[in-house]
TrEMBL record:
Listed name of the protein: N-(5'-phosphoribosyl)anthranilate isomerase
UniProt enzyme class: isomerase
EC numbers on record: 5.3.1.24
Keywords in alphabetical order: Amino-acid biosynthesis, Aromatic amino acid biosynthesis, Isomerase, Tryptophan biosynthesis
High-level lineage: Bacteria, Pseudomonadati, Pseudomonadota, Gammaproteobacteria, Thiotrichales
Pfam families: PRAI
Entry similarity comment: Belongs to the TrpF family.
Residues in N-(5'phosphoribosyl) anthranilate isomerase (PRAI) domain copies: 5-198
InterPro entries on file: Aldolase_TIM, PRAI_dom, RibuloseP-bd_barrel, TrpF_fam
Any one of the GO BP annotations: L-tryptophan biosynthetic process
Amino acid sequence: MRTRVKICGITRQQDADFAADSGADAIGLVFYPPSPRAISVAQAQNVTRGLAPFVSTVALFVNPSVADVSRCLDAVSVDIIQFHGDESPEFCSQFGKPYIKAIRMKPDTNLAQLSEAYGSAQALLLDAYQPGVPGGTGTTFDWSLIRQIEKPIILAGGLSADNVAEAIKQVRPFAVDVSGGVESEKGIKSHDKISAFMREVANA
């Protein structure tokens, strides 16, 4: 099965277009103001304008209010919501959109239990745990902690062209999610790094 790719933290239309042209299956837009990759609704409208068909737009939130999510969904063409905080299954499932729940991996994380709790999620995204940081840490975690579950797994956390092939071989995820690993600076994607990342995924 082909490993899908999401390129997250997109802030510019040209980066979204290049990601799509390079074969990315999804782009991620960060609606979390403390993040250096955060964008406004108006910026998101511009980024997604003219995006190629069959490329999914993922809106990322961290402990948002209902109004925050609704305001975004009303203004931006969003296919999937990604919740990266402490949101409950009930909160995540109320917006009438497919959603992904991010899990920050610790040695005692029970994936089977979380998969059952978030049974309405399309997938679980597994990221590195760092105290006080909800995501985008740029660090990997111990992939041996991952136990296969029935729900699709999206692997994130410190991925780049240097390690994504090994990550895919070891974890066999449904998809991989990259942000900092394809950047020239925070929020600005390197087209060369995107190309290299996509090559490594294809060759894994």
